[in-house]
């Protein structure tokens, strides 16, 4: 199912396959067909979501991880397609919602847990700035610690707890949600160029940026991010980045 190395494969938006040793985690599955969902409300355009299809790649996995239940990270299509007995790691606040959907092996992570030789840590996130971040609700990142360590930051901007997570775990691989998602008013709620550059300066890890060009309010393009950063991987949908 996976190689013995640490890698991340982008499917679309924040949906990634993270391989840590012999274990594959499917993170934030969103499987809706293009245009199946409405635009995000109060955003600068009216394009229906998702904007692009999921590439035709092998999505075999050992467990599912959901950083938070916003519809671009967990959708009805994923709930319908996934096996109801798959080990499913999530925020404690959202465990009951997955159980209500019929999943039978829901594993809320308060701090850390173990799975098939990998230690799974839940880490803080801040989905925006100020009052808007509070309105967006709780979000989490996850660290997967095996022989090598991968940090999936989730929907967060750069702030001190992200720096502290990098210092604490010293990961070899960091996956960031870019796109600089934005509403009509207020500051961005996911990472933009300056956030990504701050992470790049704070770690020796391979830095991979996803969550781009798939949802209508993610306005920062891959081309723009590549042009304005150095030593950052910005994969295409379906592309794998391997250490």
In short:
The protein has 243 residues and is α/β, with parallel strands linked by helices. 19% of the residues lie in helices and 25% in strands.
Q: What structural keywords apply?
A:
243 residues; alpha/beta; Metallo-beta-lactamase, Chain A; seven-stranded mixed beta sheet; six-stranded mixed beta sheet; 13 strands; 19% helix; 25% strand; globular
Describe the structure.
- Keywords: Hydrolase.
- Residues 11-211 form the Metallo-beta-lactamase domain.
- GO terms for molecular function: hydrolase activity.
- This is Beta-lactamase domain protein.
- With 243 residues, the protein is an alpha/beta fold.
- The chain has one domain: 4-Layer Sandwich (Metallo-beta-lactamase, Chain A), CATH 3.60.15.10.
- The protein is built from six helices and 13 strands.
- The chain has helices at residues 76-81, 95-100, 130-135, 160-169, 193-202, 222-228; strands at residues 7-12, 15-20, 23-27, 63-65, 88-90, 106-108, 112-115, 118-124, 140-145, 149-152, 173-177, 206-210, 240-242.
- The strands form two sheets. A seven-stranded mixed beta sheet has the order 6-5-4-3-2-1-13. Strands 7-8-9-10-11-12 form a six-stranded mixed beta sheet, covered by helices on one side.
- The radius of gyration is 16 Å and the shape is globular.
- The chain starts with 6 loop residues before the first strand and ends with a strand.
- The model has no long low-confidence stretch (mean pLDDT 96).
């Amino acid at each position: 199912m996976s190689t013995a190395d640490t890698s991340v494969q982008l499917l679309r938006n924040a949906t990634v396959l993270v391989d840590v040793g012999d274990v594959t985690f499917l993170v934030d599955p969103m499987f809706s067909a293009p245009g199946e969902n409405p635009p995000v409300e109060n955003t600068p355009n009216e394009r229906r979501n998702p904007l692009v299809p999921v590439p035709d790649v092998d999505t075999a996995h050992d467990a599912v991880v959901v950083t938070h239940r916003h519809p671009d990270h967990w959708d009805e299509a994923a709930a319908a397609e996934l096996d109801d007995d798959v080990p499913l790691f999530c925020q404690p606040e959202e465990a009951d919602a997955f159980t209500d959907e019929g999943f039978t092996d829901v594993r809320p992570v308060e701090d850390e847990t173990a799975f098939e030789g990998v230690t799974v840590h839940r880490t803080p996130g801040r989905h925006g700035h100020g009052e808007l971040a509070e309105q967006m609700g709780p979000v989490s990142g996850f660290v997967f610690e095996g022989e090598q360590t991968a940090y999936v930051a989730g929907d967060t901007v750069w702030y001190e707890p992200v720096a502290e997570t990098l210092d604490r775990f010293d990961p070899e691989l960091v996956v960031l949600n870019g796109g600089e998602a934005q509403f009509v008013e207020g500051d961005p709620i996911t990472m933009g160029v300056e956030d990504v550059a701050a992470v790049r300066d704070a770690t020796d890890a391979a830095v991979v940026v996803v969550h781009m060009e798939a949802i209508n309010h993610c306005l920062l393009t891959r081309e723009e991010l590549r042009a304005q950063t150095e030593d950052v991987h910005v994969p295409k949908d379906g592309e794998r980045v391997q250490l």
